[in-house]
Design a protein that fits this description.
The chain is mostly beta strands. The protein has two helices and 28 strands. It folds into two domains: about 90 residues, Sandwich (Immunoglobulin-like); about 230 residues, YVTN repeat-like/Quinoprotein amine dehydrogenase (Methylamine Dehydrogenase, Chain H, 7 Propeller), CATH 2.130.10.
């Protein structure tokens, strides 16, 4: 091979190797992967935006229903005001502020319900933002009345029944009882206290509240997050229901089923799918009213046993306010009960036709028909 031919051969081999190397590195002929430099993040960009500060209200500041609430913010740096500030109250956007003064007053119409309400301000500047969220507490603006009672009649009651739920329908009482390995659903003859029908729950379940919706009985359990729907006439189980909290008391209010979970919250369920459609937080004029247990809907109010007490709270379901308390301490004195602190008042039923109110308790030997006095 002559020198010039040898040189040409070498050049051809080198070109071929270069093409092969390019293909193997890029995956496509003639192109290489572009190596982009790592983005440089400045110290300022790494820090959260500090654009605004909340001047009022303060965390857990207390108000009454119907109060106005002044929300006031200020620039974090005086000479660098935000471009805008969005104001939210109780999850709703209520205003957009674009200049000083950075203030907005929530109207009294927005504070018609009791509860813990969120206040949020979101400040924007140059495509950056900062969110500040705190909570206030709205108490009832009325002082609850204290109601008394008179006994109209007494009836026998199974002293072994750990009463968790109670309702009246068409001349009979329906009772849900609790305790593991002792929970049941019962139909009871009022005059004699005789159990006419009884369905036992599985031993692992702790039965709680019951209510009637149409021709179906709903029953929840304490900590299992499952409940049952029965045909009222046969006690045949026709469905299961599920919920995300504890099950305590149940009642029916118009086209909704209301459930308590031992807190101060009442949940309103759509009965067919048993999904929560709304909720209220229950407060009186000075505190939240929790430990809400067995429920009954009576003449536009939700009556709730307050667990570990002999009180019934009469609650406005539209606002969460406690209208009044019924003190039943002397109805069945604690000294006569089998177990102090356990055999407490629990069970409210209402006969709307006869306008009769029935109450009892866990393992009480009597069912009482009472009349409320002012």
């Amino acid at each position: 091979m002559r020198p010039n031919e040898y040189f040409g051969y070498i050049v051809s081999v080198l070109l071929m190797l270069l093409i092969i190397w390019t293909i193997s590195c890029s995956g496509r002929p003639g192109k290489t992967i572009e190596q982009k430099p790592e983005p440089v993040i400045t110290e300022t960009e790494q820090q959260p935006a500090r654009l605004i500060k909340m001047l009022s209200p303060s965390e857990n500041e207390e108000y009454k229903t119907g109060n106005q609430i002044k929300i006031s913010v200020a620039p974090e740096v005086n000479d660098r005001p935000p471009d805008s500030v969005m104001i939210y109250f109780d999850g709703r956007q209520v205003s957009v502020l674009n200049s000083a003064p950075w203030e907005y007053t929530v109207p009294s119409g927005f504070t018609g319900t009791t509860g813990r309400k969120s206040v949020k301000a979101v400040g924007y500047r140059n495509k950056r933002f900062q969110t500040i969220t705190l909570f206030i507490i709205v108490f009832s603006d009325i002082i609850p009345k204290n109601n008394g009672f008179k006994i109209v009649h007494t009836y026998p009651h199974d002293s072994e029944a750990f009463t968790q739920g109670l309702f009246y329908d068409n001349g009979f009482l329906y009772e849900g009882t609790g305790q593991e390995a002792g929970s049941s659903l019962r139909e009871v003859e009022i005059e004699s206290g005789k159990v006419l029908r009884q369905l036992h729950l599985e031993s692992s379940l702790f039965g709680e509240g019951i209510t009637l919706y149409g021709d179906r009985i709903y029953q929840v359990t304490w900590q299992n997050k499952v409940g049952f729907v029965y045909d009222k006439n046969t006690f045949r189980q026709i469905n299961k229901i599920y919920y995300q909290t504890q099950g305590w008391g149940l009642t029916t209010m118009n086209d909704k089923i209301v459930m308590s979970d031992g807190s101060n919250v009442l949940y309103f369920f759509e009965p067919e799918l048993f999904t929560v459609v709304s909720r209220i937080e229950v407060y009186d004029h000075e505190k939240k009213v929790d430990q809400l247990n067995e429920l009954e809907y009576i003449n536009g109010e939700i009556w709730a046993n307050v667990w570990m007490s002999d009180l019934i709270a009469r609650i406005d379901p539209a606002t969460g306010k406690v209208n009044s308390y019924i003190n039943l301490t002397t109805l069945y004195p604690e000294a006569q009960r089998r177990e102090t602190g356990a055999d407490v008042l629990n069970g409210i039923a209402y006969d709307p036709q006869g306008k009769r109110i029935f109450v009892t308790g866990k393992r009480w030997p009597k069912l009482y028909e009472i009349r409320i006095t002012e």
